Amino acid sequence: MSNIQTTKPKHFLTLMDFSKDELGRLIQRAIELKAMWKQGEQYEPMKNKTLAMIFEKSSTRTRVSFEVGMTQLGGHAMFLSPDDTQLGRGEPIEDAARVISRMVDIVMIRTYGHEIVEKFAEYSKVPVINALTDSYHPCQLLADVMTYVEHRGSIKGKTVTYIGDGNNMCHSWMNAARQFDFHLNIACPEGYDPDQVLQNELADQISIFRDAKQAAAGSDLIVTDVWASMGQEEEQKIREAAFVSYQVNADVMAQANKDALFMHCLPAHREEEVTAEVLEGEQSVVWDEAENRLHAQKALLEALLIGLPIN
Ligand code: CP
Ligand code: NVA
Known about the structure:
The protein is built from twelve helices and nine strands. By secondary structure, the protein is α/β, with parallel strands linked by helices. A five-stranded parallel β-sheet has the order 7-6-5-8-9. Helix 1 crosses helix 5 and helix 5 crosses helix 12. Bound molecules: phosphoric acid mono(formamide)ester (CP) and norvaline. The site of phosphoric acid mono(formamide)ester (CP) has 8 residues, from helix 2.
């Protein structure tokens, strides 16, 4: 029996790599896998399978959830950092992709430019997962939508408000609006808007605001993210000034619907993008959201390596 792959593998670089139907099934499967795990049921279809995890940026949730997820599925996860691989010494990404993907079964990458994961995927023999680039964070959105569904049911037709930088999280929320059929209000200061091409593509499904409270009015879910992302540390002070009126606080939450939830991908900066009161408040589901990274990514690993269960 040969394990040599001749067809192109399926990757997960943005939410657009899966169809609406596939994403819906993946969320349901994540909920199912979570229930199995809570019941202590062992499900180990990934014996002898290895996930390579390439991290060019820091991580707590993504690393722990992928590594634990692979363990629970019966496989193995290998952490690779630029500090102690040849990637940090300038080995071309296309060479690394061809070498690593001849030995492992699936690869997860967290890096800077989105073109780096695209290039890795182009040269990889095995599925590649985007675990955050400067442009997108699709794994986070799987957990976020799963968390909404668990707490409130379908997100279809709802209004989500993203308050903050037009960054990787904002772009993935925009893709989520498209794939899960909801409206996305975006409140951000001028100069920090999301990508213009994405805005044009999504014109019917997004509204841009320059006022956080106006954006939050009538929302079912309020989300935010840090003002300075990884790689933007030197802009922290300038950004604190630019985003000062874009904090998610009790006044902003009061504009949203009574049963609105609050989410944050974490790590959070209390009293910057969100007050401690909101983060720790009754509408916040951030700890469920963080835990769901594990369950959603187990469903993703299964979808890419085994396939999605048929409904
Ligand atoms: N939300 C998220 O991706 O967290 P980490 O940076 O800790 O992985
Ligand atoms: N926008 C943040 C998300 C961290 C999970 C960053 O890129 O640093």
